[in-house]
Amino acid sequence: MSGWWHDADSDGIQDHLDNCPTLRETYNKFQDDDGCPDFIADNKLTADTDGDGIVDYLDLCPTQPETFNGFLDGDG
Question: 29, 35, 37, 52: which could form a disulfide with 18 (CB 3.0–4.6 Å)?
Answer without folding.
Answer: 35
